[in-house]
């Protein structure tokens, strides 16, 4: 095993920052790679050296093995850490790194290849005696063969991309009538994400827990596990909350599942960090799901309950050192829970969001950790996964960890783009999760109609209007010169309040605003609020109706972004002559985000029903169905497959059918 003193991190965002910090603590020189879109990102500033690898799109940068290897040669790196995602589970890349005389921080290409294909991995696990879900992983990929095998397996079943993970290329099929479309969608998504449209079928295990075991192997034949993580809270098969240990784990079950995980790793002579994932049913039966041959997004919860630095262990093993602990040395202390902060709008079907990072304030305090790869002033680009940060809390018990995490979600503030913070706070408060009873069906049961943010609260509207008015006044006073504070809002005659129209949460409000001594009187519809705002070092303190509210706000032009508790709100002042949303027409279909048009399902002149799929837009590594907002006729089609769209670009115009 070759030793090295310079490490290139072939990744970006929070995982690149996290790897760089540990590598530097170990005395290694670090090299970052970056795109034009990431030039101002924290991982670039933190590394000792940085190499530009492209403009922005991942195919020409973070997924381009030749550019990564060129950067390694250019910077004198002796090893490459792939992080997760991108090239981390690409056997061809691991092989190319070794052929270039460099160390790949991870398992060898043969192990990645064996476990990277779900069909091959399942065959290996069956041979190794690891319990597996009944299914089909054969070579015949015809629709006829898959339909025949599906009848043998029974419904409901899962269609999965053989070469993938992370929920991409995966569909739940409730009955035979839905199989054909599920196969077509899964193939298309798998081919786009992984370069292979091979599928497998598995019986759907109803309402299981998703429990995974962290494993580690070294070059000297040692393989151990570091306990489990419960990752049952998922949306579209992507994890939202992770915790360690699993709330229903017993010592006997941990021994059995841990032994199966170690057997899985030994079956491929595994070296480095890996995760063996299982489905755990209500009776205590468990089944192999897949093995991720890399560091996991959720590794911090394992670090917090074991006291181990998993990146440090990875680097030690990559240098050829033996693991510094045995299975008997493993100790689990307390409980840790993690949530993922995404740039997305849960109230709009979890559409990914982009925009500037106007304010960024991560939570801090006892038992808290925020892993992030963003900085104030940075722009959230459309090219990458929308995960921005991970918020992790540890405590002596699950109850304490959960209370700390709920507070940390509220205290971690990002303003400038939509995030899922309010949704996370709502999830953490669900009784089923709080009691440790969550299964993979939690979100579907809890939000059968999707997550809705609810109608804007008039009090919140009044607070944002007051913030906007105070910003206007502060800006004017800065230009006018000093005025004693006691004269602000004073007049010898009554001052008529000004009228303004604002939009927030998709609703328009007619408001009034007038200065009064010490604050503002704001009218929202028929309600009146008196609000006093005091600037503090960490934001604003508002007094409204005898109550105080701590706020963090940012005003940019006519838009106010505000954080109050876990709520992230924005309000825009409408100016005379600006178009209202209603004026755009109900049949105008625009791109909800920047993306690539993968498919178009209709053409001009076609009659469409409300909710019918018009096109498929690929953005932030996921496919999104664009549907008709109204029933009618497609009057204009503005897009074709392969078109790259910006947010707001018009895709279709539908002439709404007249109601009888």
From TrEMBL:
Lipoyl-binding domain mapped to chain residues: 573-655
Domain of life where this protein originates: Bacteria
UniProt-recorded Gene Ontology molecular function terms: ATP binding; ligase activity; metal ion binding
Cofactor(s) named in the record: biotin
Membrane-spanning segments: none
Domain ATP-grasp stretches: 122-319
Keywords: ATP-binding, Biotin, Ligase, Nucleotide-binding
Pfam families assigned to the protein according to its UniProt record, in alphabetical order: Biotin_carb_C (PF02785), Biotin_carb_N (PF00289), Biotin_lipoyl (PF00364), CPSase_L_D2 (PF02786)
Matching Gene3D superfamilies: 2.40.50.100, ATP-grasp fold, B domain
CDD domains (UniProt xref): biotinyl_domain (cd06850)
Residue span(s) of domain Biotin carboxylation: 3-448
Protein name: Biotin/lipoyl-binding protein
Organism name: Ruegeria pomeroyi
């Amino acid at each position: 095993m070759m030793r090295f003193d310079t490490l290139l991190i072939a990744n970006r965002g929070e995982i690149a920052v996290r790897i760089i910090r540990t590598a530097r603590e170990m005395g290694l020189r670090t090299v970052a790679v970056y795109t034009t879109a990431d030039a101002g990102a924290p991982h670039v500033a933190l590394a000792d050296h940085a190499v530009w690898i492209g403009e922005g799109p991942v195919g020409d940068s973070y997924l381009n093995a030749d550019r990564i290897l060129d950067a390694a040669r250019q910077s004198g790196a002796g090893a490459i850490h792939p992080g997760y995602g991108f090239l981390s589970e690409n056997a061809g890349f691991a092989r190319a790194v070794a052929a270039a005389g460099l160390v790949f921080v991870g398992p060898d290409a043969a192990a990645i290849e064996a476990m990277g294909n779900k069909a091959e991995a399942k065959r290996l696990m069956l041979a190794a005696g690891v319990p597996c879900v009944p299914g089909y992983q054969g070579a015949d990929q015809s629709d006829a063969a898959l339909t025949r095998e599906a009848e043998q397996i029974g419904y409901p079943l899962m269609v999965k991309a053989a070469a993938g993970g992370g929920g991409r290329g995966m569909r739940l099929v409730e009955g035979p009538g839905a199989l054909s479309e599920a196969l077509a969608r899964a193939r298309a998504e798998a081919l786009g994400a992984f370069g292979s449209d091979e599928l497998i079928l598995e019986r759907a295990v109803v309402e299981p827990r998703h429990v995974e075991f962290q494993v580690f192997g070294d070059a000297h034949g040692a393989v151990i596990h570091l306990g489990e993580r419960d990752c049952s809270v998922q949306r579209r098969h992507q994890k939202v909350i992770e915790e360690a240990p699993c709330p229903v784990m017993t010592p006997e079950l941990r021994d059995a599942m841990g032994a199966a995980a170690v057997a899985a790793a030994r079956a491929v002579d595994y070296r480095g960090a890996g995760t063996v994932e299982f489905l755990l049913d209500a009776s205590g039966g468990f089944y192999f799901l897949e093995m991720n041959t890399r560091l996991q997004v959720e590794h911090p919860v394992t670090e917090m309950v074991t006291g181990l630095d998993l990146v440090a262990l990875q680097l030690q093993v990559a240098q050829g050192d033996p693991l510094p602990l045995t299975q008997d040395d493993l100790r689990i202390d307390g409980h840790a829970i993690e949530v993922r902060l995404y740039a997305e709008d849960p109230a709009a079907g979890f559409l990914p969001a982009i925009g500037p990072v106007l304010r960024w304030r991560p939570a801090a305090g006892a038992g808290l950790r925020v892993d992030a790869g963003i900085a104030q002033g940075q722009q959230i680009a459309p090219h990458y996964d929308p995960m921005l940060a991970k918020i992790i809390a540890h405590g002596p018990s699950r109850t304490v960890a959960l209370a700390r995490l709920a507070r940390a979600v509220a205290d971690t503030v990002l303003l400038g783009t939509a995030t899922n913070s309010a949704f996370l706070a709502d999830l953490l408060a669900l009784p089923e999760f709080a009691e440790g009873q969550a299964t993979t069906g939690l979100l579907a049961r809890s939000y059968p109609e999707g997550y809705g943010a609810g109608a804007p609260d008039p009090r919140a509207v009044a607070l944002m209007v007051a913030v906007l008015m105070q910003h206007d006044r502060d800006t004017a006073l800065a230009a006018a010169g000093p005025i004693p504070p006691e004269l602000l809002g004073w007049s010898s005659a009554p001052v008529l309040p000004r009228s303004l129209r604002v939009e927030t949460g998709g609703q328009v409000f007619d408001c009034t605003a007038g200065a009064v001594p010490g604050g503002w009187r704001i009218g929202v519809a028929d309600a009146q609020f008196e609000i006093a705002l005091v600037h503090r070092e960490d934001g604003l303190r508002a007094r409204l109706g005898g109550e105080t509210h701590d706020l963090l706000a940012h005003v940019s032009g006519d838009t106010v972004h505000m954080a109050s508790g876990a709520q992230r709100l924005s309000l825009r002042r409408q100016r005379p002559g600006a178009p209202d949303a209603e004026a755009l027409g109900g049949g105008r279909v625009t791109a909800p985000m920047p993306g690539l048009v993968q498919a178009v399902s209709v053409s001009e002149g076609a009659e469409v029903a409300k909710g019918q799929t018009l096109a498929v837009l690929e953005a932030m590594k996921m496919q999104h169905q664009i549907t008709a907002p109204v029933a009618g006729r497609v009057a204009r089609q503005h897009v074709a497959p392969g078109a790259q769209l910006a947010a707001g670009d018009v895709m279709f115009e539908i002439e709404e059918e007249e109601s009888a």
